[in-house]
Hints:
The protein folds into two domains: 1-79; 88-201, Alpha-Beta Plaits, CATH 3.30.70. The protein has four helices and five strands, in the order ααβββαββα. It has helices spanning 5-79, 88-102, 143-155, 198-201; strands spanning 106-111, 115-116, 127-140, 160-170, 184-197.
Amino acid sequence: MIISAQEARKLALPAIACALLIGAGAALIGFVDSRLAAAERELVSAKASRAKAHDRLMRIADEEREVREKLEVYRRLQQLHVIGPERRLEWADAMSRIKSNRELLDLRYRVDRQQPLVTVPGKPANVEFYSSSMTVDLALLHTGDLLRFLDDLRDSGNAYYSVRSCTINRTGQVPTGTNIVARLHAQCVIDLITILDRAARS
């Protein structure tokens, strides 16, 4: 088909407009693609920031829970009077009370001088652990008396009681008439541990 010059002139303007529209469309597509890529990058960055913020919140929640747990342990130790100076008078009262309540035949004890404990690395600089070794001699009717004595001692507070050793021997005594005699003798070494928090004192 042959197009005349006059027809060509008539078609020139629409052709130019079409070319301009095609160019504008291509530019618009390129712009949209670039904006879409930028939006995707922003979305990835926002997700990463959100993940970091979530991790940070989880760490903070874990730290808060750990602090609450440690604070509860600290308060419990305070209630038991484990934190603070030695309470030797309270120890003596507890021993007398246990002997009377449990109707023990004989109870003797000796508490050695307080000694500092070597503790693990990482403890607070203002916290010190001390131990006093207590040797206890008990006259027993049966082993249950010893177990109940140790339970009562732990429940009495005023220190953390750590049983280092206990030895039990038969006395060889034979009951005569209506007299109750001890069938067993126990000797225990118990560490009475206290904590001195110098920061709490100041």
